[in-house]
Automatic annotation (TrEMBL):
Residues 206-259, 270-324 form the Peptidoglycan binding-like domain. Residues 71-92 are annotated as: Disordered. GO terms for molecular function: metalloendopeptidase activity. The lineage of its organism: Bacteria, Bacillati, Actinomycetota, Actinomycetes, Pseudonocardiales. Pfam families: Peptidase_M23 (PF01551), PG_binding_1 (PF01471). InterPro entries: Cell_wall_metabolism_enzyme, Dup_hybrid_motif, M23ase_b-sheet_dom, Peptidoglycan-bd-like, PGBD-like_sf, PGBDSf, TAT_signal. It comes from the Bacteria. Residues 82-175 form the M23ase beta-sheet core domain. SUPFAM superfamilies: Duplicated hybrid motif (SSF51261), PGBD-like (SSF47090). This is Peptidoglycan binding protein.
Length: 326
């Protein structure tokens, strides 16, 4: 235990433990209330207005699956100063992914940032935006690596001043050292750090739009698969939403995704399988997008589930879909 850590003795509820099925209670308690106190750096109240490029879908991805521990939020009171990031708790070895395209500029203890500890990575995303990943168990990328949004970069761990495994995730916007609330920053870019369905707004583009287009084709909407959420594609989505009794706003979010995805398993064939393969490729699976759910796709699903502490059954159900897309 370090001087600056303020471990919480809060226990999670049985319901929360239930969500994490196979994990022991000890594991779940382990990441609570840790953190970094960063007295030297002031809190930035809000992210600057994002450029059009950084709002493009597919550019930002959920860095890790897990839950928010008590007291692990940005700005949480700590003896040495407010908490500089958002903690995401899961077990050691859980996959950690690049939050956006970028370059690994630090691979060092505490990311070379003052007050931080443990194995850390800093990725530069351009536009003066950076993300920091702390307390890692293992690195999957070298210093100076060019990384893609959603690419596996590390394993979650418990290195440094912690009481258990978790990812300490920071966003710096407007320059390295200018920390901002990662939850709000990511939410503006369609990513729920807590692990919800992503949001696609009209005009966006990217890998998640490709998945959407494949899924829409499965539902009988003849969309081009070009990764662009154009006005023609929006019009088709509005028709789909109306047919499903949803608000026809053209925004693909938590209400629309569950109607679009199918539970898929080995032997499934079609455009929905292409969507799944495209979603797995967002996570560096490197699959051929052929619409045929064979042993290679099963292996990729199992590998993703295992790395993210999901139930490892090789089937793509709603929980796996949500995790892959987020
Ligand atoms: Zn933290």
């Amino acid at each position: 235990m370090c001087d600056s850590c303020a471990p919480s003795t809060e226990m999670i509820s049985a319901e929360e433990a239930e969500e994490f099925g196979g994990l022991s209670r000890r594991t779940l308690f382990a990441g609570l209330g840790l953190g970094l106190a960063i007295p030297a750096i002031g809190l930035v109240a809000g992210a600057p207005t994002a450029s059009a490029a950084s709002l493009m879908d597919g550019r930002w991805a959920n860095p890790a699956l897990g839950h928010f521990p008590q007291g692990g939020h940005f700005g949480a009171s700590r003896p040495g100063g407010p908490h500089a990031g958002q903690d995401v708790t899961n077990s050691t070895g859980t996959g950690v992914y690049a939050a956006a395209n970028g370059t690994v500029i630090r691979r060092a203890w505490g990311g070379g940032l003052p007050g931080r500890s443990g194995n850390g990575l800093v990725i530069s995303h351009g536009h003066d935006q950076y993300t920091y990943y702390g307390h890692l168990n293992a690195y999957h990328v070298p210093l100076n690596a060019e990384v893609k949004s959603g690419q596996r970069i590390a394993d979650m761990g418990a290195t440094g001043n912690v009481t258990g495994p978790h990812l300490h995730f920071e966003v710096h916007s407007g320059g390295l050292g200018r920390i901002t609330d990662p939850v709000a920053f990511m939410a503006k870019r369609g990513v729920d750090l807590g692990g919800g369905w992503p949001r696609i707004d009209p005009g966006s583009a990217g890998a998640t739009v490709v998945v959407l287009q494949h899924l829409m084709r499965k539902h009988g909407h003849d969309l081009a698969v070009d990764g662009k959420y154009s006005s023609a594609a929006v019009a088709e989505v509005k028709r789909f939403q109306s047919a499903k009794g949803l608000e026809a706003d053209g925004q693909v979010g938590p209400a629309t995704w569950p109607k679009l995805v199918h539970t898929l398993r080995q032997g499934s064939k079609g455009d929905h399988v292409k969507g799944l393969q495209a979603a797995l490729n967002k996570r560096s699976a490197g699959l051929a997008v052929d619409g045929d759910f064979g042993p290679t796709t099963t292996k990729a699903v199992r590998s993703y589930q295992s790395a993210n502490r999901l139930v490892v059954d090789g089937e793509a159900g709603p929980i796996t879909w949500r995790a892959l897309l987020g």
